Amino acid sequence: ATKKLLVLPGDGIGPEIMREVARVVTWMERARGVVFDISEDLVGGASLAVHGVPIRDEVIAAAKAADAVLFGSVGDPRWASAGFDRRPEIAILKLRQELELFANLRPAKVFDALVDASTLKPEIVAGLDIMIVRETVGGIYFGEPRGIETLPDGSRRGINTEIYTTAEIERVARVAFDLARQRGNRVCSVEKCNVMESGLLWKEVVTDLHARDYPDVELSHMLADNCAMQLVRNPRQFDVIVTGNLFGDLLSDLASMLTGSLGMLPSATLGAVDASGRRPALYEPIHGSAPDIAGKGIANPLAQILSFSMLLRYSFGMEAEAVLIETAVANVLASGLRTADIMSPGTAQVGTAVMGEAVVRELDKL
Amino acid sequence: ATKKLLVLPGDGIGPEIMREVARVVTWMERARGVVFDISEDLVGGASLAVHGVPIRDEVIAAAKAADAVLFGSVGDPRWASAGFDRRPEIAILKLRQELELFANLRPAKVFDALVDASTLKPEIVAGLDIMIVRETVGGIYFGEPRGIETLPDGSRRGINTEIYTTAEIERVARVAFDLARQRGNRVCSVEKCNVMESGLLWKEVVTDLHARDYPDVELSHMLADNCAMQLVRNPRQFDVIVTGNLFGDLLSDLASMLTGSLGMLPSATLGAVDASGRRPALYEPIHGSAPDIAGKGIANPLAQILSFSMLLRYSFGMEAEAVLIETAVANVLASGLRTADIMSPGTAQVGTAVMGEAVVRELDKL
Ligand SMILES: CC(C)[C@H](C(=O)O)[C@@H](O)C(=O)O
Ligand SMILES: CC(C)[C@H](C(=O)O)[C@@H](O)C(=O)O
């Protein structure tokens, strides 16, 4: 069956690292006989520049029709003061919401060859392998009422609303428990139930679901501030962390920075399996659009390539092919090639294209 | 003039570390002729056990009448399932709100003698000295509507509201700018203006205030998720960080954990100067009640002692005495004494009381 992909490179380094994924796609078609039907479109600042909006309705429709979306990243300083309705970021927020991509899977994994890239001591992070499951269509990101209002005395007030329903909490917690069963079998649920009622409900719903359907998985609870500390103190204590949209935003970025190699980390954002067995899904690197190095040919394409490997695994069940890509990436690192962001003494610095080519060459050997 | 202090040891290790502060207070009275009028009361789980509430109205009134409050910490697992209205944490939340203690000053400082205590590499954290100014009476901690409601279909929904007004943002930003002028003269304002309108207003108000009253201070803006990353990547890039209640909760805990020695870090929470020149203020260590080691005589009393030194500085302008205490603490560390939490090879482990006595002995020598 043809596999329908929508590719959205977006802003900054997005287009140039996506070109390296194209090589891997071509390799998969040639060497493994996979047939992809790929279309590409603009999002973020790139779309604003051409179409005046961060994402067009046609692109949302194409994303819904696709089997999977491969996303680069959005964010462009040139649109920083264009107004709240013309933020490049709307593209990713709208995709998450319209496709109901509620579970963002963000692995924070330290590659053996890169353990020294971390600002943390090697004995703290060696072998680190955490999966953060972040809720992505609810919470304060989307709750109403929201906005800025002017008060009678001329002063202003900004409002946002955090809302979580039983159903929203349950479905993302299920994803976390299911994942844990395939990993270390431990879930840590994170909220601020000592201050926020939405966190209190979160904790109760996760506890109930656990007792009902996942008694075999080890469940713990942690306050979000403590989790931020524990990630620094002893990150390897965690297996799967499940948390809301806003806490997940901070904690997953924090966790990925522990690895010291953001340029290596992919992510998947999944929706619900529908009646016909299809599951909307979007794959993107954890790093941003990095406008400061865009166009220079020095960006690290590996997180984008590994996002494609996640896509093969989660959207098409192509575990063998996903592992092939991951092995090729590990071999390239072991051979000593590095992009600027992961350079260390005794390794060889290469640009974006050479790194992409090297992955394909390793694939050829496997 | 007599200096009126309210001492609230609270739960866990609170009482035992507060006893060590008492030694330092006595020293100040004896050696420097300062006259303190001290009263003490129960808060948190300790108050729940005796009075059935986490804090009594009389205690709030006494706190308002005092020149400064010296707080231990609240939190007790025995009250974990006592219900949202009987959380020990209500004690500190109510004190902040009733005294309008809107600016929480949380230094994250690496002591030279303890640079190896951090899980981060010494070259990343040596000399680290950040001040986080966290808003503490607004935002999602206190906004209405809030609560858990049951929907017609029997499912539930948890709601909290983030609200920030121009005035709330301005007054805490002023504290940050004023502090920056006495330090590195740089302020980084942190929000999620790419997702939340309350963050957008935050950024605008800080920007306007800066242009109007603090053009000499260097101002930058950063998204909260990026700030979490940057604190791990290169924490020394920051001088003063100013942010809202919830982001401040996570980011200040994260920043303090970078030092690896939570047991060393004090904090101050300040209100507004009133017509008669008084300023409500509360001082507390950053670490929590640590119920697991409570009553064992092994807790580190230094953060509580340094909170008293902050109290002398900010509430009474006693800079010389504040520095005396800080010097005494530094000398004790230099002499090789350590409580269990900051032990390292080649130093001598001591308990809570011996550490407190050592500080007083050093004060005697100064
Ligand atoms: C781009 C932005 C809106 C987004 C978010 O805050 O969710 C990003 O930080 C992320 O984590 O994917
Ligand atoms: C005890 C708790 C309510 C409090 C908070 O969340 O503000 C604590 O974590 C803090 O940072 O002082």
TrEMBL record, chains A, B:
SUPFAM superfamilies per the UniProt record, alphabetical: Isocitrate/Isopropylmalate dehydrogenase-like (SSF53659)
Known role: Catalyzes the oxidation of 3-carboxy-2-hydroxy-4-methylpentanoate (3-isopropylmalate) to 3-carboxy-4-methyl-2-oxopentanoate. The product decarboxylates to 4-methyl-2 oxopentanoate.
Binding site for NAD(+): 288-300
Enzyme Commission number(s) from the entry: 1.1.1.85
Catalytic EC class: oxidoreductase
GO molecular function list: 3-isopropylmalate dehydrogenase activity; magnesium ion binding; NAD binding
Record protein name field: 3-isopropylmalate dehydrogenase
Site, Important for catalysis: residue positions: 141, 192
Record-listed substrate binding positions: 96, 106, 134, 225
SMART domains the UniProt entry points to: Iso_dh (SM01329)
